[in-house]
From TrEMBL:
It comes from the Eukaryota. It comes from Podospora bellae-mahoneyi. Residues 48-60 have a biased composition (Basic residues). Residues 181-192 have a biased composition (Low complexity). It holds the Pfam family FHA. SMART domains: FHA (SM00240). Residues 1-12, 20-44, 66-117 have a biased composition (Basic and acidic residues). Residues 242-305 form the FHA domain. Residues 1-193 are annotated as: Disordered. Gene3D superfamilies: 2.60.200.20. This is FHA domain-containing protein.
Length: 336
């Protein structure tokens, strides 16, 4: 080993030179390798980070598996909560039902106790009723007694009334209370006529508030016919009311036939208003006929007039009183 050949020395020197020359190359390559490894590490970390971000994004998205799991979990929680509520509600309703059942049972027990007492009382009363010493009353008498026992919702009657009913009599009628309404005596006194002999005649008719005298332009006249002859002509424009009858002291138009009543009928002029096609009020005084509930009635153009009711009279209307053959024709003179 100590003896080396010059060739080996030269080879060794060359390899040393080569190693010296290779050292910087290996250092650069190592540095490059390190850089590459660092880049790969950075890339892998970036990739893992991006994967994590994508995983988070996917977990936030509504279509992710985690979202479906959470939703199923929420549904299960809701079901459990609803189940707890239903159980609480059922427990409450069961508790209320049991309390109601207990109260009903207590009430029935109390009623049964009272019912036993009532049954004992009824039994004793039936024993006394069916005893041979007291015979039962007949059905007719029982029904009469039941009829007399009337249930009163109001106050109980007095003792006298109850004794009267039990003895078969009638209770005393209550006294009539004072009546402060209008009796009509004052109106009759104000519408009465005193005769010379001191007797008074009460008028059956009072003029209404709408009574008016006819207009001077309307000349209403009443022609009295007996057969074909004119017996009398009466100008009706002088007053608003014409009382027809046999009572000479009070009537305005005397009719002496025996079938005519003392105060038979009235020809009354009344003011009546109507509206025209434009809505304006048009007032006019017109004659009306009213029967004062006479015995034989009043006829208008052959038809009987209803009692105590106004009927409008028109031009050329014919009126008959009672069974009299006289005809009273109403005429309106034409305007000039």
């Amino acid at each position: 080993m100590g003896d080396r050949s010059p060739r080996q020395d030269s080879h060794r020197s060359r390899s040393k030179k080569h190693d010296r020359n290779r050292e910087p190359r290996d250092g650069a390559e190592g540095r490059k390798r390190k850089h590459r490894e660092e880049d790969t590490e950075r890339g892998s970390s970036y990739r893992t980070r991006s994967r994590e971000r994508g995983h988070r994004r996917r977990s936030r998205s509504p279509t992710g598996r985690d979202f479906s799991r959470d939703r199923d979990r929420d549904r299960e929680r809701r079901r459990e909560r609803d189940g707890h509520r239903d159980r609480d509600r059922d427990h409450r309703s069961h508790r209320d039902r049991s309390a109601e059942r207990d109260s009903r049972k207590r009430r029935d027990d109390g009623d049964s106790d009272n019912g036993g007492r009532d049954r004992r009382r009824r039994h004793r009363s039936s024993e006394g009723r069916h005893s041979p010493s007291r015979p039962s009353p007949p059905r007719e008498a029982r029904s009469d007694s039941q009829r007399n026992l009337v249930k009163h919702r109001g106050p109980l009657p007095s003792q006298d009334d109850s004794f009267a009913v039990s003895n078969g009599g009638e209770p005393e009628k209550p006294k009539e209370k004072p009546n402060f309404g209008n009796s009509g005596a004052l109106a009759a006194a104000s519408n009465s006529v005193t005769q010379a002999d001191g007797t008074t005649i009460t008028l059956k008719y009072h003029e209404p508030a709408e009574a008016r005298k006819p207009s001077p332009r309307d000349e209403w006249k009443l022609f009295v016919f007996k057969g074909e002859d004119i017996v009398d002509t009466i100008d009706l424009g002088s007053r608003s009311c014409w009382l027809v009858g046999r009572e000479q002291a009070v009537v305005d138009l005397l009719a002496e036939h025996p079938s005519i009543s003392k105060q038979h009928a009235v020809i009354q002029f009344r003011y009546a208003e109507k509206r025209n096609e434009f809505g304006d009020k048009i007032g006019r005084v017109k004659p009306y006929l009213i029967d004062l509930e006479s015995a034989n009635g009043t006829m208008l153009n052959g038809d009987k007039v209803p009692e105590s009711r106004y009927l409008e009279l028109r031009n050329k209307d014919m009126v008959q009183f009672g069974s009299s053959t006289r005809e009273y024709v109403l005429m309106l003179a034409p305007r000039a």
